[in-house]
Each structure stands twice: as structure tokens, then as C-alpha cells.
């Protein structure tokens, strides 16, 4: 081996030993494990209307109120027909690949 390669290899090995104690394999002791955070029940929420913090009871009441609202989304019959035709077209394109030549 050339002297430069040996010196470089020894430098890399020495530097890895110097920095090894600073590396940690485990998270800090005060860190909450992700499994516990995933299982945690969230008792507060935010309003979908204005982002205001709400308790669980207020959030449930707001969701019920929004579900009962009188404002149902309406779409014109022309647009509903176009959406239906596009969905049928997409279904046909996935079920029958050679028909793509006829549709496009």
C-alpha cells in the first residue's frame, strides 16, 4: 500500500474513534415513544370553520350541527352527466385496454 493511503485510512479510523462517543443509538430518556403517541386519545380539536380550539364535546356538537345544515351541495344536471360519462370512460379504459384506441 502507498504511504498516503495508509495515512488516510489510519486518519479515518482514528477520527471515527474520536467521534464515536458523541453518537447515540438510543433516543433521550425524556422522549415519548412513537407507539405511545399513536395510541394517545386526542381530547381537543380545532374548529374546521375558524381554527379555534375546541373541547371534544364542543367539537362533536359542531360536527353534528354541520351535518344537519340545510346547505346541501348542488350540482347542475349537465355537470353530473359529464362526471358520469367520465367515470364510465375510465372504467372502460381499465377493463378493456384495446378500446383505448376507439375512445381517444
Concise account of the structure shown:
The chain has helices at residues 3-19, 34-39, 56-67, 77-95, 100-103; strands at 44-46, 53-55.
Provide an overview of this structure.
With 104 residues, the chain is mostly helical. It has helices at residues 3-19, 34-39, 56-67, 77-95, 100-103, and strands at residues 44-46, 53-55. The protein has a two-stranded antiparallel ribbon. Strand 1 (44-46) and strand 2 (53-55) form a beta hairpin. The longest helix is centred in the C-terminal third of the chain and has 19 residues, at 77-95. The mean pLDDT is 75.
Please give a handful of descriptors for the protein shown.
104 residues, mainly alpha, two-stranded antiparallel ribbon, 5 helices, 2 strands, 56% helix, flat
- Strand segment tally: 2
- List the secondary-structure elements in sequence, H or E: HHEEHHH
User: Ranges with pLDDT <50 over ≥5 residues?
Assistant: none
Beta strand %? 5-15%
Roughly how many Å is the radius of gyration? 31 Å
- As laid out across the biggest beta sheet, the strand order is 1-2
Summarize the main sheet. Answer: 2 strands, antiparallel
Helix segment count?
5
Helicity, as a percent range: 55-70%
**Spatial shape:** flat
Distance between the termini: 66 Å
Class of secondary structure makeup: mainly alpha
Topology overview:
Layout: H1 3-19, H2 34-39, E1 44-46, E2 53-55, H3 56-67, H4 77-95, H5 100-103
Amino acid at each position: 500500500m502507498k504511504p498516503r493511503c495508509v495515512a488516510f485510512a489510519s486518519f479515518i479510523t482514528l477520527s471515527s474513534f474520536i467521534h464515536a462517543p458523541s453518537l447515540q443509538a438510543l433516543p433521550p430518556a425524556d422522549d415519548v415513544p412513537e407507539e405511545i403517541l399513536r395510541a394517545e386519545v386526542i381530547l381537543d380539536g380545532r374548529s374546521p370553520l375558524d381554527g379555534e380550539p375546541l373541547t371534544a364535546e364542543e367539537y362533536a356538537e359542531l360536527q353534528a350541527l354541520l351535518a344537519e345544515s340545510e346547505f346541501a351541495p348542488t350540482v347542475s344536471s349537465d355537470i353530473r352527466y359529464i362526471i358520469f360519462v367520465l367515470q364510465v370512460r375510465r372504467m372502460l379504459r381499465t377493463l378493456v385496454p384495446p378500446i383505448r384506441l376507439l375512445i381517444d
